[in-house]
Amino acid sequence: MNGEEAAPSLESLRLEARQIYGRDPAGYDAGRPQYPEAVYDILAARCGLTQGTTVLEIGPGTGLVTRRLLEFGATVVAVEPEPAFADYLAESVAGSRVTIIVEKFEDAQLDDEQFDLAVAATSFHWVDLAIGAPKLGRVVRSGGWVAIWWTVLGDPDRPDPFRQAMVETIGPDPEHQGPGSAFQLGLMGGRTDLERMAGLTGVQAEVFRWTARYDAGQLRALYSSLSHVRRQSASDQERLFDALSAIVRDEFSGVAHHPFVTALYTGRRP
Length: 270
Fold this sequence. Notes:
Number of strands: 7
Helix content: 40-55%
Shape: globular
Distance between the termini: 49 Å
């Protein structure tokens, strides 16, 4: 090996990320933005989400989507591999129609054709696609639906004065997303994976562009929920938050507008 250390495995990186996120579930829950209402409109109108729908949720985290599914009257099985998130979720939905399985989706014991609908919100990139995609196609019943979606911080197709100000003050790539981070927006590839690997038909891909309004405190919560920020020392985090606050205060009169993109894929089991 010429003294070189082996690169960390994808699974070890996934485990590290889950543990980083799990250090502060309440902070993560407070910082993460809601998803566009159009996503839930499609779940209801196209995918049959309604009273009594049995839903598998893959990687619910702290329950941002879980709570919305319950509002529709669904019964939810939530598969969450991070114990700290699972505990937080259990407390936040106590007494509701939610069963929590603390396991990776690839390893969770689920019956074939068990669910009317399977969803994954900004989580399916944590799943081993070779195992998870075929399993995703099996666990929904014949005629059932799969819906997976991601939200990406920023929008490469829209002006973003706040992000430009961050780049000038903090440096390039302040969200630490890099050129490959928007893989979730590769619509043709996502459609092909669901058709070929999960065996779904009628796969559709849609993009929703939206903008969130943040004050300094809300920006602090958002950026403190990002894994690369959580990896930093406390002093480095404070320097980042101080810089964000100064930008919002001095250049945007206390309110920043942040563009987001949400990509949604839906498909049906034949």
